[in-house]
Amino acid sequence: MNKKISVGIIGGGIAGLSFANFLCNNNLFKIKIFEKKNTFRQNASGIQLSNNAIKILKTINFNNISEKKISIIKNIHIQDYKSNKSITNFSLNILNNSSEYICLDRDVLINFLLDRINVNVEISHKEAISIKDNSINFLDNSNEIFDYIVVADGIFSKIRKSLQNLDFLQSVNAIGFKGIIQNHKKLNIENLDLYLGDQKHFIFYPINSYGDFSFTSIFALQNSILNKDYENLVLDKDSLLSLSADANTDIKGIITSANSIYQWPIYKHKNIFFGERKIFIIGDAAHGMVPFQAQGAAQSVEDAFCLAKLFEKRIYEIDKFYKFRSSRISMINARSNLNLYAYHVSNLFLKKIRNFFMKIICNNKLLCNLYFGKIYNYKFKDLI
Predict the structure, then answer these.
(1) Is 245 a domain residue?
(2) Whole-number percent of the chain with pLDDT over 70
């Protein structure tokens, strides 16, 4: 019997677990995941999955997940942060073949991916600190050797830093806050509400059919760089309400209703780095970007799927992976940076221009598909 190809995965988030899922039924590979935390769960938070990610996840039967555990979003209602006045309504049905857009608790997706892992995947909670050649070195001074290594340890990747020996992080002088509201009184569970303000924005959306909602609030900070250690710090409601002093009453009510609020600094990567030699890097570890296109989880899923397809074809070349992924990541990164600017415009004249183009694009089927179709209707034509 031929020896199986060993693959070590560093990081048990969406990218790492997705990659393991796409290969776990392939007897060519023996996979081991290293996740330093004793639990895969994080602080409660919602995530958004657009059509490009959902289509891929359906290949591993994600469509069988209970509809009660997710919310199917039909409309994105864009409003003014202060006045609550409607800017435009974006009906997702206007997108050709791309009406699927769901929101859910991150842990629901993580648990789905964990439940599908079979005997070909081993899980270890040792903390990886560096890679040398094909050996993963751990905090307990042990090491393990693999044929190939996949790094998926997030935007602040310690492993990427050990490989490149340079600072690839770039602060965008912004800070984010997130929280969960349970049993909220809002009845419409098909709407995602986006509020645009001066140097800030707020997103509110359902994450299941039980009345649970998630919110994200992002503020620009002038010339302020927050250390990454600020990630997932618990914040009291009064502090966020103080920052949200000019918010409309709906936003303030949402914040007041939250169980717990967590904050994190917003960073992006200066460049894309998919790895070297037999070490592949995927997800936020490869191309961390600002969260303004709801593509963080989606691009992690796309990376994992693309790399798994290459592995299935016994193609283990970084250059080939870079060829498939770099231009798309660069395009989405540019769109995200544009949204960072557009969402936070404070000049009255520029806001009017922004709102005008939002109305035109979101309500014209041709323009909408030209602009959003590149992201949401994407297909891996050369791989499937």
Answers:
(1) no
(2) 92
Do residues 275 and 147 make contact, with C-beta atoms less than 8 angstroms apart? Answer: no
Instruction: Identify whether the C-beta of residue 293 lies closer than 8 Å to the C-beta of residue 333.
Output: no
Judge contact between 10 and 149, C-beta under 8 A.
yes
For residue 376, the one-letter residue type is: Y
Chain center to CA of 368: 22
Average pLDDT over all residues of the chain: 90
Which residue range forms the structural domain that includes residue 72?
5-168+269-376
* Domain harbouring 283, CATH code: 3.50.50.60
Helix axes 296-312, 14-23, angle to 10 degrees: 30
Q: Give the three-class secondary structure for 17.
A: helix
How many whole angstroms from its chain centre is CA 328?
Answer: 15
Strand order across the beta sheet in which 128-132 lies: 128-132, 135-138, 143-145
Phi, psi of 328 (to 5 degrees): -70, -45
The alpha carbon of 241 is separated from its chain's Cα centroid by a whole number of angstroms, namely: 26
Average pLDDT over residues 263-269: 91
33-51 pLDDT tens trace? 999 987 666 666 899 999 9
> 196 is written with which tokens?
């645009």
Half-sphere exposure of 381 (CA within 13 A, CB side): 2
- 291 part of a folded domain: yes
Q: What is the 3-state secondary structure (H, E, C) of 51-76?
A: HHHHHHHHHHCHHHCCHHHEEECCEE
The partner residues of 121 in beta bridges, in order of sequence, read 31
pLDDT greater at residue 302 or residue 184: 302
Establish if 48 belongs to a structural domain: yes
* Cβ-contact 71, 209 below 8 angstroms: yes
Q: What pLDDT score does 380 carry?
A: 72
Flag whether 97 is in a domain. yes
For 323, phi then psi, to 5°, come to -60, -45
pLDDT of residue 349: 96
